[in-house]
Design goal:
- The complex is a heterodimer.
- By secondary structure, chain A is mostly helical.
- Helices cover 72% and strands 0% of the residues of chain A.
- Chain A contains 15 helices and no strands.
- In chain A, helix 5 packs antiparallel against helix 15.
- The longest helix of chain A has 48 residues.
- Chain A starts with 9 loop residues before the first helix and ends with a helix.
- The relative contact order of chain A is 0.21.
- Chain B is α+β, with helices and mostly antiparallel strands.
- Chain B has a five-stranded antiparallel β-sheet, sandwiched between helices.
- The longest helix of chain B is centred in the C-terminal third of the chain and has 39 residues.
- The chains are: A mainly alpha, B alpha+beta.
- At the A-B interface, helix 1, helix 6, helix 7 and helix 13 of A face helix 15 and strand 12 of B.
């Protein structure tokens, strides 16, 4: 039987990565790109795509490197290296936990904003009513915990099922919204400096950092192929998100998008279904947006549990999921709204998160090499003595 | 004689050499049994008389067969045999009776009292001979049974019309007549301490995964229960996640479906006294497959299957969506439809949630009443409930006409799902969705759907993911999608599904 082997297929790996990268990009990119690049949005997004491509390939190469790299116990993979290399490894794991907590907090703020925009009953837009909003979001977060409390094999299955659902509204939007688009926005213009263009492109990398999960997931593959197309698939997903972003900006206008943080949700109001089937499209689209948000929350919690699971050698990690959720809610309570949160999150991303995501895997490799060599030397000397 | 039973409810007594001891034990065991038939016969021989004791249960046994194969040969032909040659030793007597006198093929020797009693309880006849520490057990079963009938719950327009019965042997024969392959095995056993219900595992030796077979056997032997009276009871004991609303094993009353499952490398579990057999493992997709699909042209079969998937969505979601949209998002609807709903609801006194729940509960009550009543009266209840009560409820302004349409559509959709266990699950989930839609609108329904998706993704049936082929990963993917929402033409379904043992999946090729 192929089931119950604790492994995922390449298709599941690809879908897990594409879903998380696409979901984390599509909800924020139209607003952020309009705000940052202004009229130079086309060029800016191309720069972002190029930088994303470099980052994705970098992670892909590291993933392959980690495949060959064995930790002390003989197990390969990023998490094994993080959790089995003594104190430095444990410290690196703690850093990962903190990053997960911060990212999860941002996603919760995003969920609250999306649900508010989608007119969910009892969601209030006022900052003073965070309690009410959190109560509405709480069942959603608990479902996130339910979804995350699995082994990687079942996690892969969940994402395999959710995969197409997330793309449906965007395909429909492109189909039915074509006539509303002002195609002038697609004409490349540059009215900001090259330095700023690069800086903003770099800052936007914060939204595609879920790609880092590739390092966790790669050792869980059932069949390790030399040719792995996951990286290319993720780049294609980012490109698709960029096309939708341009599409949204084509309907909304760059200036209009700057005033609407939830542009992706708000744009659905302008889509009209043919034959008078429905008057409003946006409300129904909540199906798909909620599923996108679920992917983000579920994956963050899952990886928290996944790291703990490896650290504790298979102990039940449900409490760690609640702990991570509780800490994230603490940050949400402090920040209160998505509008307050996106700028600090981007700053944190640019200054800490992106550099950490680049350096930490490298550090892991170095620490592991040092530890494994030390172990080998120890063993050799013991053998000689005996 | 005092009879002692062990923890497994079995008597630990041997067959005694002294016939009187055996009679004592049997008299104690079968004391106050009104339907037991016991007879001590005395056979003549030159050396003296030989006592033989026969025991069987009236009603379970073919009396005529006992007369024909035991009584007459023993009383009359035996005498002739004794005159021909000298039969001295007791063992030789037994052997002569066993091999020469009893005119039956299905005759076995038993050395323990429990084995003999076990056979007698199933309708066999026990024969004890004085001076021998063994007994004979003659298969004389003649259990009350009905004739092979039409399938009641899985009716179809095309295909065979026979269905399983409560008789174990007829059920195995119904499958055997469809697959004439010596590789199809039948492993039998008993389950239930007191009921000692016979069960059989039918499978293709070369197609089934040995690990699946051993897992099923392990599961069946992992519990003790006093009685199993239907396959439905065993189903609950075999399922891994008892709390799941979804059935994790498939039951069918159609022998052609069971045979087809065996050909796919699945295991069919036949339980005595049950008119349904269990198929293991199963996936969500198999519940949408009807036998007709394969007998009809592929386009017709595929269309019917698409309709069934749509029906499942309608059953679970339509009433909930109606409540959510009309309560929270009326602006979504086109103006004309909105006005029509508002007009229909003009005089209705109840809120939408109560209105929908009322009608849905009314429908479920009518359905339940229709099942319990005998055939013709059941139909009457449907007519009375559907037409008269529905009409009266609308006229009394208890419910709106739109709600009647929604509930009727949901009801029709639920009947389009070919498996009763499965459609019941959907009808149950419908109520959850109605409540979630009323509390949180579409968001509530999405939460419900998300929980369903996660639950289904986590669910497995004997190691096979329940949502296969949607979650098949990368293994044999092409083969899995041959028989999914669209059923491809038979000649393109060249490979067996994933249940089949690796290396044995080819099932069709052109010569």
């Amino acid at each position: 039987m192929f089931s119950k082997n604790g492994k995922i297929s390449e298709k599941q790996l690809g879908r897990m990565l594409i879903l998380s990268v696409f979901a984390s990009t599509i909800f924020v990119l139209p607003y952020l790109s309009a705000k940052m690049f202004g009229e130079s949005v086309v060029v800016g997004l191309l720069v972002f795509l190029a930088l994303s491509g470099i980052y994705v390939l970098y992670i892909d190469v590291l993933g392959m490197r980690y495949e060959k790299c064995r930790a002390k116990s003989g197990k390969e993979g990023y998490v094994s290296v993080l959790t089995e290399t003594g104190l430095p490894g444990k410290l690196l794991a703690v850093v990962q936990f903190i990053r997960i907590v911060i990212r999860l907090a941002f996603y919760i703020l995003l969920v609250i904003a999306i649900l508010g925009e989608a007119q969910v009953p009892f969601m209030l837009k006022s900052n003073e009513e965070l309690w009410s909003n959190l109560l509405v979001v709480l069942p959603f977060l608990l479902i996130g915990v339910y979804g995350a409390n699995t082994k990687v094999e079942k996690q892969g299955r969940i994402h395999e099922m959710l995969f197409w659902i997330l793309f449906i509204p965007f395909v429909l939007m492109i189909l039915f919204g074509l006539k509303e688009v002002d195609y002038k926005v697609f004409v490349p213009k540059i009215d900001i400096s090259f330095g700023r263009l690069m800086l903003y492109g770099y800052v936007l990398l914060t939204v595609i950092l879920p790609m880092e999960n590739h390092l966790y997931l790669r050792p869980e593959l059932q069949i390790h192929k030399k040719k792995n197309c996951t990286g290319i698939a993720v780049i294609a997903a980012i490109a698709f998100a960029i096309i939708i972003t341009l599409f949204i900006l084509g309907i909304y206008g760059v200036n209009g998008a700057c005033d609407e943080p939830m542009t992706t949700i708000a744009i659905m109001r302008y889509i009209r279904l043919p034959f008078g089937v429905l008057e409003r499209f946006d409300v129904l689209m909540i199906w798909f947006f909620v599923i996108g948000c679920f992917v983000l929350i579920c994956q963050m919690l899952f990886f928290a549990g996944f790291i703990f699971d490896k650290m504790s050698k298979g102990k039940n990690s449900i409490w760690i999921l609640f702990l991570v959720l509780f800490l994230s809610l603490g940050i949400v309570w402090k920040v209160r709204t998505y509008e307050n949160g996106w700028l600090p999150f981007l700053c944190y991303g640019a200054v800490l998160d992106i550099p950490i995501s680049v350096i930490l895997p490298l550090l892991g490799l170095l620490v592991n090499r040092f530890y494994v060599r030390e172990e080998d030397t120890g063993m050799v000397s013991e053998e000689k003595e005996s | 004689m005092e009879i002692k039973y062990n923890a497994a409810n079995e008597i630990e007594l041997p067959v005694f050499a002294n016939l009187d001891d055996n009679i004592d034990a049997l008299e104690s065991i079968f004391a106050d049994w009104g339907d037991i038939v016991k007879k001590k016969m005395v056979l003549e021989r030159k050396e003296g008389f030989l006592s033989v004791y026969i025991i069987y249960i009236d009603g379970l046994t073919d009396n005529e067969m006992v007369e024909r194969t035991i009584t007459r040969p023993f009383l009359f032909e035996w005498k002739e045999e004794c005159e021909k040659r000298l039969i001295k030793a007791d063992e030789t007597i037994f052997r002569t009776l066993f091999h020469n006198q009893a005119e039956a093929i299905d005759l076995v020797e038993k050395k323990t009292m429990m084995d003999v009693i076990d056979g007698v309880l199933k309708g066999d006849t026990g024969i004890f001979v004085d001076g021998v520490e063994k007994a004979m057990l003659l298969s004389t079963k003649k259990l009350p049974t009905r004739a092979v009938n039409f399938p009641q719950k899985e009716a179809g327009l095309k295909g065979p019309r026979d269905s399983f019965l409560e008789n174990f042997r007829i059920n195995t024969a119904l499958v055997r007549r469809r697959i004439k392959d010596p590789k199809m095995k039948l492993k039998q056993g008993f389950v239930g301490q007191r009921s000692r219900t016979l069960y059989g595992l039918m499978y293709m030796e070369d197609l089934v995964y040995p690990s699946l077979l051993s897992e099923i056997e392990k599961k069946i032997h992992s519990f003790e229960i006093d009685g199993i009276f239907d396959s439905g009871m065993l189903v609950h004991l075999l399922e891994e996640k008892w709390y799941s609303p979804f059935p994790q094993v498939q039951t069918t009353e159609r022998p052609d479906k069971a045979a087809s499952a065996i050909m796919e490398g699945r295991v069919v579990l036949i339980v005595d006294n049950s008119s349904e057999v269990i198929i293991l493992p199963t996936t969500l997709n198999t519940f949408f497959q009807a036998a007709d699909d394969y007998y009809n042209r592929f386009a017709v079969g595929s269309f019917a299957r698409c309709l069934r998937y749509l029906a499942a969505f309608i059953t679970v979601l339509l009433p909930g969506l109606y409540v959510a949209v009309t309560c929270y998002y009326p602006q979504v609807l086109p103006a004309n439809l909105l006005l029509a709903i508002a007009g229909a609801r003009n005089d209705v006194t109840f809120p939408i949630l109560v209105e929908v729940l009322l009608m849905e509960l009314l429908f479920e009550l009518l359905r339940e009443a229709g099942i319990r009543l005998p055939g013709q009266m059941g139909n009457t209840i449907g007519v009375v409930g559907g037409l008269i009560v529905g009409q009266a409820a609308v006229e009394a302004s208890l419910v709106s006409t739109i709600v009647v349409i929604v509930v009727a559509l949901t009801a029709i959709a639920s009947f389009a799902i070919p498996n009763e266990d499965f459609s019941s699950t959907f009808r149950l989930l419908k109520f959850v969705m109605i409540v979630l839609g009323a509390v949180w609108g579409l968001y509530g329904i999405v939460l419900g759907v998300l929980v369903l998706i996660i639950h289904l993704a986590k669910l497995e049936s004997f190691g096979i993911p329940y949502m296969m082929p949607m979650v098949s990963g990368s293994i044999d993917e092409e083969a899995e999608f041959q028989d999914f929402v669209v059923r491809k033409p038979i000649f393109t379904m060249t490979r067996r599904p994933l249940y089949t043992r690796r290396g044995h999946r080819r099932r069709f090729w052109w010569k």
